Amino acid sequence: MPDQDGKQPTSLIAEESAWPDQIADRLESFVGQVRKRTVVPLKTAAAVIVYGIVIAVAIAIASILFVIAAARAANGYLFPTRVWEGYLALGGIFCLLGLLLWSKRKQKD
To answer: What is the pTM of this model?
Structure first.
């Protein structure tokens, strides 16, 4: 709508030049919301899974090394002349530990 001089009003020019910025802002806001609802929870879940696997592997390795160290200690220091006594002692300890854990389990009715 040109005025008497043949020029368009500045408010109309400002509105026409602002709509690409508004569309870009709305698109950026929409993408941010989608990312917040999808990518962030998936990223958190993936991190929990990866750290859980790393911790489980570390615990398994530590357990194996502990059993090896206990067997070596039992054979070398507690029962140096007869190896079977060290294995019997460790077996008894692990059986008692297993019985203790078995008695603490929750039974299904």
So the answer is: 0.60
